[in-house]
Specification:
about 210 residues; alpha/beta; TIM Barrel; 4-stranded parallel beta sheet; globular; lyase; (4S)-4-hydroxy-2-oxoglutarate aldolase activity; Aldlse_KDPG_KHG; EC 4.1.3.42
Length: about 210
């Protein structure tokens, strides 16, 4: 899959499920439930113990797998070799960008300032993660696109059913959701995550 195809699939999906499991099995169940609910892009975070097992379990599923909480180039390479089709960081790391460019994998670094965004753009990043998005309003995207009209932003953190369409209407290429899924799993298990994922898909289709 090319970088262009990955970008297109995420833009079409509009929702990326950010999966943080207390262990590999929980992450697998969260991912499968989100996929069953209609979410086609899954970000497996490297805070999950034995995340390699999660990649192995999900690689044959009909979903786009990415890696999250990637803090250094060594982790980025591990993720890419494990099957990640995109790499996400909470911050911008030039060495991670270099590794991703080398393997033709999109890199979505977390950026909050214009300076960080320009540096990421100059390193080949096409989509930038706004994190934590709950510190901003959706209108922030329009403000950024004034001086940087080419910037595509994926807000993550604080996205929920009440504000997801506000962010998409403001110009977000996609959004990342995670804490809602974890809460649903802890209170209602697998089926609760399936139902919540369906609600997100229905919400963005309205």
């Amino acid at each position: 899959m090319s970088k262009f195809e990955t970008h297109a699939q995420i833009a079409e999906s509009k929702v990326v499920a950010v999966i943080r499991g207390s262990d590999a099995e929980e992450a697998i169940q969260l991912s499968k439930a989100a996929a069953e609910g209609g979410i086609r892009a899954i970000e497996l975070t490297y805070t999950t113990p034995n995340v390699q097992k999660v990649f192995e379990e999900l690689q044959y599923e009909d979903i786009l797998l990415g890696a999250g909480t990637v803090l250094d180039p060594e982790t980025a390479r591990h993720a890419i070799l494990a099957g990640a089709k995109f790499v996400v960081s909470p911050h911008f790391n030039k060495d991670v960008a270099r590794i991703c460019n080398r393997y033709g994998i999109p890199y979505f670094p977390g950026c909050m300032t214009i300076r960080e965004m320009v540096e990421a753009l100059e390193s080949g990043c096409d989509v930038l993660k706004l994190f934590p998005a709950n510190d901003f309003k959706p209108s922030f995207i329009k403000s950024v696109n004034g001086p940087l009209p080419q910037v595509k932003i994926m807000p993550t953190g604080g996205i929920n059913l009440d504000n997801i369409n506000d962010w998409l209407a403001a110009g977000a290429v996609a959004v990342g959701i995670g804490s809602d899924l974890n809460k649903a799993y802890k209170t209602g298990g697998y089926e609760a995550v399936v139902e919540l994922s369906k609600q997100y898909i229905n919400k963005i289709s309205q």
